[in-house]
Amino acid sequence: MLHPDELARRARQRVVELAARKAVHLGAALSMTDLLAVLYTRGLRYRPDRPDWPDRDLLVLSKGHGAYGLYAVLAELGVIEADLATLPGHPSDSVPGVEAATGALGHGLSIGCGMALGARLAGRDQRVVVVTGDGELDEGSNWEAAQFAAHHRLGNLVAVVDRNRLQQEGDTETVNALEPLADKWRAFGWRVAEADGHDTAAITDALAGLRSGDGPAVLIAHTVKGKGVPFAEGDPAWHMGSLDAQQLRTALAALGEPAALGEPAALGEPAALGEPAALGEPAVPGEPAVPGTPAVPALAAAARGGRP
């Protein structure tokens, strides 16, 4: 079993190699990789050999334009065998391991609410995790879902916010300020934790702390958009783009070689967190004409009006 740090490193390699073949939402995929690596190795009851296992926990990627980050993690776990370049730019539930088709931002948390309530009504001990973007929280449907989850005391629902502070149009606090974000969630009746979203031990501990308690919980994970690729880190221009040969070499060199890391608990038995408690749209049209050029923000905004 891969340590989450190594799983994240390999998944990032897959994403940047893909970005040398086609334009992808690079920044959004790279900022959440460590979160997904922890969830699939320590946070979810999950069997890669049986992605349709009825007793599995469910993960919904609400920030659908980060799909290639999810695909890369699932590919490293052996769930996806297809060439990632052939898969849609937003999650499709036709892809092995993908629980819901998303990409219309602001809908994932509502889907997760339905899954969590459905599990309770069916008497299933099943956890639901929804990974959202921070710019996505501009959508009012998120807060309707947050209110619903608190009202129904959905203790088997956890939201993980990829708080990279950038959306397609720029800094989140300039476009439509989210702070005080933690206080907003608390005001809606959610339990809240915050962590460095690139420190897998800190993510593990934060998720463990959210397992006990009544009602829904949220982890605000502070991340860097484009994490792991120095020229893309914190640069909104790399919301979407493709890499030329030199940029690919630079990115792969930055990601480096595997480190000597200990092995985590087996998948489906997340010892670090204890036993589980009741806890489409295609890529933006018009790839850059010259590889190595990020997608033009104005074109992307006009094409999808999206947020990270």
Q: What helical percentage do the residues reach?
A: 25-40%
Mean pLDDT: 87
The proportion of residues in beta strands is 5-15%
State the low-pLDDT regions, or none: 260-291, 295-308
N-to-C CA distance: 31 Å
Structural class: alpha/beta
The rounded Rg comes to 18 Å
Question: What's the count of strands?
Answer: 7
DSSP helix count? 11
Strand order of the largest sheet: 1-2-3-7-6
Overall shape: it is: globular
SSE topology string: HHHEHHEHEEEHHEHEHH
Main sheet properties: 5 strands, parallel
What would you note in describing this structure?
The chain is an alpha/beta fold and 308 residues long. Helices cover 36% and strands 11% of the residues. It contains 11 helices and 7 strands. It has helices spanning 4-19, 26-31, 33-43, 67-76, 108-121, 140-151, 172-176, 181-187, 200-210, 245-255, 297-304; strands spanning 58-61, 128-133, 157-163, 166-167, 170-171, 191-196, 217-222. The strands form 2 sheets. The protein has a 5-stranded parallel β-sheet, sandwiched between helices. Strands 4-5 form a two-stranded antiparallel sheet. A hairpin with a 2-residue loop joins β4 (166-167) and β5. α1 (4-19) packs across α4 (67-76), α1 runs antiparallel to α10 (245-255) and α3 (33-43) packs across α9 (200-210). Residues 260-291 and 295-308 have low confidence and may be disordered.
